[in-house]
Specification:
globular, alpha+beta, 34% helix, single chain, 89 residues, four-stranded mixed β-sheet
Amino acid sequence: MSGRVEIEYCTRCRWLPRAAWLAQELLTTFEAELTELALKPGTGGVFVVRVGDEVVWDRREQGFPEPTAVKKAVRDRVAPGRTLGHSER
């Protein structure tokens, strides 16, 4: 599976700080597994996390994510079987 993660966020909603914070969390957790993390400006209330071409979190369907939920979704695609330590409890 791809080591590329994309976080698309709504610029009109001012969600860049949230997207940047989530990006930092993912880069810290998966520093060896990720090859790229992109922040993609969007509009219309979008907040979507993709691994490769696969949507792993969509705010419209699932609400705003807790970092642990996104980390689990990303882990399942880039490092299956890896533990997330204390955040997984």
